[in-house]
Here is the input.
Amino acid sequence: MKSIYIIGSLRNPEIPLLGNDLRKLGLDVFDDWFSSGPETDDYWQKYEKTRGRTYGEALEGTMAEHIFSYDKHHLDRTDGVVMLAPAGKSGHMELGYTIGKGKPGFVLFDKEPERYDVMYRFATGIFFDRQKFFDHLKENYLKSRSRGPNPAGFLRPETSIEENFLRCIRCLRIGGHAWWCPHR
Here is the structure.
């Protein structure tokens, strides 16, 4: 892993601090979206309502198109993401999009959430301690810049897709064998 996108809330002042810590590990970190400020979405909504536009119309507007393209470009170009919780709907959409593309997507909680949610199991890794997250990255993604969780791909050509699926259900979900998988 050479680059990582930090997903989170515009209102979370920890975003750039996490970015600084990840840069110290030698990663190219994308957290520039944070510079637009904590009230960006509120101002956009107010502006669109002043124009008399619905939410659906606003999503089709030029500003929404530009911001979406900007974020998507950086989600696509980075090697993985970490979502710093708590995060809103957009953050969860970005996390799911990235994992669906076969890239690692981590969740870093600042504390145990008030309400549990089992679907965080879709994440490549879930952490409640920054140092443990950093140690995990160092051990499994940063040892060699040329290696990810499974550089050769995970399907075995001599077996069917069904057999491969049964062999590594979790690996299939993350797009390659995890560091702990015996088939890597």
